[in-house]
Amino acid sequence: MCDTLAIVNEDGVFFAKNSDRDVNEGQVLEWHSAQTFPDNAQCECTWITIPQVAQTHAILISRPFWMWGAEIGTNEHGVCIGNEAVFTNQPYTKKGLLGMDLLRLGLERGASAAAACAVITGLLEEHGQGGGCGYEHRGFTYHNSFIVADTREAYVLETAGTHWALEAIQGARSISNGLTIPDFAAKYSDRIKTTVSACRQRQPRTQSLAEKAQSAGDCFSILRDYGAGQSGPVYHWLNGAMAAPCMHGGGLVAGNQTAASWVSELKPGNVHHWVTGTSTPSASLFKPVSVHAPVDLGVAPEGVVNDSLWWCHERMARKLFRNPGTHLGEIQQQCTTLETQWQDKPPHSAEAFRIHEELLQTWERDLLPAQIQDTRPWFVKRFWHSRNRAAGCL
After folding, report:
1. In this structure, how many other beta carbons lie within 10 angstroms of the beta carbon of residue 94?
2. Domain residue limits, the chain
3. Which CATH code, of 2.60.200.30, 3.10.310.30, 3.60.60.10, 3.10.450.50, is assigned to 2-391?
């Protein structure tokens, strides 16, 4: 479950996305240089292999650790893409390209937003979409929608099986886990699964906030949002805290969390990207990154605790959100203060990541005691007990 938005104005485009995945599904931030391939080369995607192209673009992506495709990314030409799981009345095939594969292929092969859309729709029609998309439940599958943006324009691209619809964005536009292009949605939506995803609560919220946003910092705030008047997650027994953009697991039926967050400011000749590289943007730091300046982030996250940045942050966050009223506000203030300074004068990416790592150590040492009273509902406690045991966390 995810939320993606774009804001198109006369100066350029803002792009923002929360990637919501299974709670133990570490997400890898990685750089890939442009490459040239020989004739008859093949591209091994998550579940199928397709013909490779002669030349690919340099990309920076955020991907679930176990799949080839990505949830969010950009390329050297300033194209950004975010995808959404959508649920339709069309057949779900057992094997094909994942929506995440289509996203990465669009970045590797498309030098503009329009070109990336053409790549995705062409591959969709040729190879179809399908295969297991989930980490905890590998058989879980869905169709996909996308926002595809560059420095001049952006599009909503929605799919149902091999069918698709395209809409140019004017002003602010957000998408979530339901089809939104009216005629296409009326024809292809699966209303029950769409309802469970809580997208009918999140999408109007992100849309209203996007219409007021004027800066990258405003986009950070949208991705951190818990709903009108809320300062922390609000849980429902069915799907946890999935009704707000900053998502937390905890439901008896569904339980994703925001696993990674991304904001881009796209102007001709002036492109800036900001990423958390971690879960829970409400308690994380947006750091500047560039597709042209790879950062050594050390060990990559997996599905169990390791020494990656993703899991170092996750250990801290799982303590904090037992009772977020204690120190979440203080952590948020520290993050927003730094981000405000950085938007005027961004540090080198490696320095920003180093500062984040130091903050994590400080927060754990000074703010979070070993034992924190868990104030969450019983079903949320049960959810996290089982996930923590599976990951070897806490």
Report:
1. 11
2. 2-391
3. 3.60.60.10
